[in-house]
């Protein structure tokens, strides 16, 4: 129901309740009917299911096939089952699963710890008595009793208020506290303006009130958002789609390879069928990069750990890379771009406009020239107190006419506006003394508050704050030039003009005044009215407040834009506030799109709006989702940041959802892919840079692994064909017909290639990682450039390696020596290839010490195979110095040829923004 358009009497009748509260029997019945007052929680994923999910992609299925093929070789005549080969592949699969499982499990448990909060309670009236009950036991019809500091447990219709204000930023995005009232509103009133309703997951910051609960649990506004999340489909990240596509393409390539090789051997060389099957299966196993899943997973896991060290908790490994492909960030304002706290940023005191945000005083000569015409510097003296008496008097008034509590830098209680006034006085070194004798509280009709204070010197004074024009109407003098002078019409107009200038910059402006010499009768147990005290006041000045931008955000946004990433603001705040904050952060604030504009726009018009505007104000959850879908329809990869309940649907539907860990609600965190533990937008910039660096590294080691596999496949295939023509006596029907044995191929794939590939995964980011535009979401890991690089490298390895092999065989007639030289050449060539794939990224040899260690370790393992009893297992011989000389010449030819032929194709060209 549209409860805001119902009268109190109608609500009472509809819910069959009264202002004395429900009976316990009625509560029990309604609790059974409506269920507990809580949001449905997502089922906890069991560790077994989480572990099994690590094996659901095409590349893993391909490796399982490779393991089965290794075993299948043993069923051929004269061959043994490849138990060792199959066991190694399975071991890699398990290692890959463990890497991913540990990261995902730790992320889920870390999020649970982040969200572990005590169960809130609610104060209600039941059976005519006031009692505290668990919030989960609140039912429709309950009468809530609320005061400052209370969390609101359910949606409720107000029936009584006393200066009640609530913080609804988590639900609506409204940064300022909302003044509540009990009147009936129009049915079309938007959510952010329903001032006669209270909402679940918001809080009272000032005053007190009573309200009848109208909706609980999933029927609340927060519950409606949670329902949208449940209905949203799980989505794959761009990188998950790429890896799956890579596995499918490799699988198709393996099938084509087997068929091609089999037909060639049967038709061209008339090879016996048994040998054809052996060669085809062996080459198919060689073509599969067994270490690729483990290297990808470990690279992402290490990237997630680097992000965690920077306070970014990644909930799913592929998201680390996906951040690198983001080309648009849609960010909430309150708490994400701003500090989510009110701060006094500008004051008018003694005729001077002072900018308190940076500790300096800036004369505003173009505004109110009658008063603001001088540039006196309001600095602090050695004891930290302002020298300027007018500024001190203004801050004293703000601190005394105040019901907030401030204990230290962070512990606060009370209305955010009053907390800001206390902080401004404290930061200026102002510590007013005095005992409050009487208070005339603020309400929506008076629009002002006054306190009477007795000071230690025996003097009594009244201090007033409120709407500037209301306070001015009570004043007949003004503090100016250190003296109290008449408040002439010209001076009054100047103050009003300054007020309008402050408001034009989206500041929340309050006026301040005092009256000295208030009599004791007017302050202690007096029946005098507020009107008798709030008269003949001296106007002290203005204090303008705002939720300030985080200091590091402007630079982070600028970095994102230099990287070709659009940054858009979507907030529930009003248009002027959004524009003011946007201007400070470098947004184009000339135009702003509102939620009403989105409602009225067609799909085509909305697409035009999201491509032209940077600020979206007064938007609700459905508007944010509409903006995201419009952006995604144009091919953009969109990240959504936010912390409120209202952000959750957009977080869930975005390509990458980023929530806040400190100010973020549980609903938002559950809907996101990454949680910022420091709520810092700058961390998103770092995450994007990390993601881009990871994509570069993935391209490097995919290029490296596929180049090695392509070389091995071509060497064996072409070697068998050439051997059948030129050395028919050597390449007969026996196992020696292969220029490389299956054991040699598996050694290179799993050990020699594996360690360098892992090391490439931790290569440092390039200096220009945030200076190039984002890659298109359609850009695959393996593109045309990489295909050319892989095939070119494979051909070079084949030409140089087989030249070495057949020359040695022709001169020495020793097959074992020729095989050993070819085997070792490929190992060394692949190790040098690890450096060749990174040379175009501007990285030096010493920039990655882990790669150097991996290359030396792999080469050392190769020496162990050559000069230890393992040589019998691999059917190799120890190489002499002369053999090493021939090998060195072959490697030099390969490296020089690679440098010449691969120039410009080993590095991905900057992608055109999608």
Automatic annotation (TrEMBL):
What GO cellular component entries does it have?
endomembrane system; membrane
Q: What is this protein called?
A: Ca2+-transporting ATPase
SMART domains in the record: Cation_ATPase_N
Does the record's keyword annotation contain Membrane? yes
Keywords annotated in UniProt: ATP-binding, Magnesium, Membrane, Nucleotide-binding, Phosphoprotein, Translocase, Transmembrane, Transmembrane helix
Compartments where found: Endomembrane system
Span-the-membrane segments of this chain are: 58-76, 82-102, 250-268, 274-302, 701-727, 739-760, 781-809, 815-836, 848-867, 873-901
Taxonomic lineage is:
Archaea, Methanobacteriati, Methanobacteriota, Stenosarchaea group, Halobacteria
